[in-house]
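Hi U.,

Before I forget, here's the chain from the pilot set. I'm dumping it here mostly so it's searchable later in email.
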Amino acid sequence: MALQIMRIKPNPAGKDRSRYGQSSAAQLAAEWVDFQNTSSVAVDLAPVELWHQAYHHGQNPTWEKVTTFSGTLAPGKNVRVHSGSGPESIIRDDDRRGADYHVFTGKNYIWNNKEGDTPALFNRVTEVTLDSASYDPNPPEGEVLVRSGNKLVPARTVSYSYR
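Structure:
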């Protein structure tokens, strides 16, 4: 699998909106998902789309497109996809670290906290899901979830075995 979802921060610490109902650009950017080129060759991102499972008023979830991409991603490099519209200068240091590239969805909060969610990378040309990983409802506030199998879980719950 050339592109793989690696981390997500679906529930940034702090209030999502001010008392006037507005979301700050930095707070929106604190909600993000990372994917990485895990292959040994560059990957063309032009046909790649990011999708997720959206919940509308108690109905069953439906797949909705989050964003598209352009350019080429070199081997081992990763992209962090932030909610909101930027600009990149508003990204907090802790949300900047660990990513080679930063892009924005142009949309307010994407990731579902109450129901959990499943980010998925989809190739619109071949109509193939390249990768997906799910997280459970009510992710801890402010925590980055990391890949463990096909799940995104709090890092403290991942056990590593050394041989």
